[in-house]
Design a protein that fits this description.
Blueprint: H1 28-42, H2 44-61, H3 63-77, H4 83-104, E1 112-116, H5 119-126, E2 131-135, H6 141-150, E3 155-159, H7 165-174, E4 182-184, H8 189-200, E5 204-208, E6 223-228, E7 231-236, H9 238-246, E8 250-258, E9 262-271, H10 281-302
Parallel strand pairs: 1-9, 2-5, 2-8, 3-4, 3-5
Antiparallel strand pairs: 6-7, 8-9
Helix pairs in contact: 1-2, 1-4, 1-7, 2-4, 3-4, 4-6
């Protein structure tokens, strides 16, 4: 029997690519209400039990999240991840989300926090010097936010709330005042002017720099490809353009969760100033994005189950 030519073989069906804005709030209203109830009435032990149930539900009925978890863990571990390892990664997301409610409510006595490199942030505060912090959907931003209040750091966070509306509304109800330091992600002049105003006042503006703008495709000029965990992924250029325009220093920050109650916070210098020469702008942007991706990879390898991008992150 002759062998079928490769060109005539039927390709294996590929699931449609899932972007991060396609990932909604699975777990929904009931899980969020349970988290609020735990944070305000029943306590963290009860909440962690509910988190396990919600994580198992999500693991069972969200095949896209399982697929994304398997791919990320395979790239870090160098082998196929077990079902338990993918469940544990989703559980970590549920646990840190639950903890966020306690942190927003000011109930920080439940947690141990270690800091690494926070002298950089203290120097910015003492010198009333504005800066941009680059983070990622790795571990917990809310742990960093809570620690900033302990250290009196003027940190403002740029967030995209449209696919997490219910959670953010719940945070707002727990402590309305703290959401005043959240800036809705935007690309218009009003957003730019607001960030510029804050930086000039000595504020520190935190941006999660691992997700591309909503609806960006592979050819979008607002993104750049970089090598990341053995593959190619696209990252946004917006944070670097913004930092270049504002001529302010840039730092990296990550907050890694360690079960059951510890958060390791990291801060390190990234660039004293982002320089984008007119004749080599694209090359300079690619260099900064790769620098970010390389350091992000380092921190992901420190805590693979803290990687919370449950969508098709890498280019195919």
């Amino acid at each position: 029997m002759s062998e079928q030519p490769a060109a005539l073989e039927t390709p294996s069906p590929q699931p449609p690519r899932q972007g991060w804005t396609d990932v909604g709030e699975k777990g929904g209203v009931l899980a969020i209400r349970a988290a609020v109830f735990a944070a305000t009435v029943m306590g963290r032990t009860f909440g962690r039990l509910i988190a396990r149930i919600v994580a198992f539900y999500y693991w069972l009925f969200a095949p896209g999240a399982r697929r994304a978890s398997r791919e990320a863990l395979h790239r870090v571990l160098g082998r196929d991840a077990s079902g338990y390892e993918t469940y544990r990664q989703i559980l970590r997301f549920a646990q840190t989300t639950l903890d966020a409610f306690f942190l927003v409510a000011g109930k920080t006595q439940h947690f141990r926090v270690t800091t690494n490199g926070h002298q950089h942030l203290a120097a910015l505060r003492d010198g009333k010097r504005g800066a941009i912090l680059l983070g990622a959907h790795l571990g917990s931003f809310y742990a960093m936010r809570a620690q900033s209040e302990v250290e009196n750091l003027p940190i403002y966070a740029v967030v995209y709330t449209k696919n997490a509306r219910r959670i953010n509304e719940a945070f707002e109800k727990i402590d309305p005042g703290k959401n005043a330091k959240l800036l809705q992600m935007g690309e218009g002049i009003d957003f730019m002017l607001r960030v510029k105003e804050l930086i000039e006042q000595g504020a520190i503006v935190a941006i999660l720099a691992d997700r591309v703008p909503p609806n960006a495709d592979a050819a979008d000029a607002r993104t750049v490809s970089a090598e990341f965990l053995g593959g190619t992924a696209r990252f946004p250029t917006g944070p670097y353009l913004l930092a270049s325009m504002l001529k302010c220093p840039v730092y990296l920050t990550f907050g890694l969760y360690r079960d059951p109650n510890r958060y390791d916070l990291f801060c390190e210098p990234f660039a004293e100033k982002i320089e984008l020469p007119r004749k080599a702008r694209e090359e300079a942007l690619a260099k900064y994005v790769q620098q970010y991706a390389t350091r992000l990879e380092h921190f992901v390898r420190m805590a693979p189950d803290n990687w919370f991008n449950f969508y098709d992150f890498w280019e195919r």
